Amino acid sequence: xxxxxxxxxxxxxxxxxxxxxxxxxxxxxxxxxxxxxxxxxxxxxxxxxxxxxxxxxxxxxxxxxxxxxxxxxxxxxxxxxxxxxxxxxxxxxxxxxxxxxxxxxxxxxxxxxxxxxxxxxxxxxxxxxxxxxxxxxxxxxxxxxxxxxxxxxxxxxxxxxxxxxxxxxxxxxxxxxxxxxxxxxxxxxxxxxxxxxxxxxxxxxxxxxxxxxxxxxxxxxxxxxxxxxxxxxxxxxxxxxxxxxxxxxxxxxxxxxxxxxxxxxxxxxxxxxxxxxxxxxxxxxxxxxxxxxxxxxxxxxxxxxxxxxxxxxxxxxxxxxxxxxxxx
Length: 328
Known about the structure:
Blueprint: H1 3-33, H2 39-56, H3 60-67, H4 77-97, H5 103-119, H6 126-158, H7 166-171, H8 173-202, H9 213-229, H10 232-241, H11 247-267, H12 273-288, H13 295-325
Helix pairs in contact: 1-2, 1-4, 1-8, 1-9, 1-10, 1-11, 1-12, 2-8, 2-9, 3-8, 4-5, 4-13, 5-13, 6-11, 6-12, 8-9, 8-11, 11-12
């Protein structure tokens, strides 16, 4: 391997680590806030399931990221490095501010900005681009609706159950948190895989796009390590920022989120797990009482989502020109 390829892979794994660090809040926040699982155990469980997930459910998302967004001619090292750099900078900035932004949006924006800066709009592949946009922009609304629906059903059933049924929703979070961790690792872990595999093609190491086993292992390890350390600023926002989360809210939002993220992963759509889980939490709270939700916090997060793609498009273009100046 050339030194530049090693640097590229290292940057990709840093993105995977920060993705796990940034998005660990998604998986464990409600379990911790509802006292369903102790914090350290919740993070350990999430890290383990994030590691296992990418090995179990294929590489459809990685294929979309690495080969269906831009044309082959734009799958170059400067484009990939610029996309990763912009996503990393945005992840760090939003973590510092405590906003649960989307790593997927950041990566997509950086990718588009770098590719268009270097090769023009013609290199964007319509089919893959539409699939990604559909997954990213529709999934929050699906999360909101499904979170509301699941919580509505749980409330209706709960009225017929004895008070002791609350123990079920408390303990069942071990199952739902495990499933959510597997779905998160499956979807988000593949984003790092797709970038690395794309870089291997650009460097001439691979003749065609394929995800080697060592790339799966390295990507799964990086996201698991990031998850284990946990972004506590974001955990506080997700777990307590919207409203006071109780066990039935945690159960409902986790169940809804898991279904959406798994479905998207099998379809090959890299959804934003941050958006899906956040909107599912809001949906669950709204089903109980609309004014239960702190809508000001929700609107602040929506604002962060809206500026993510244009900001990272600009960052991606700037990083591309920087790497071209360095003759990478």
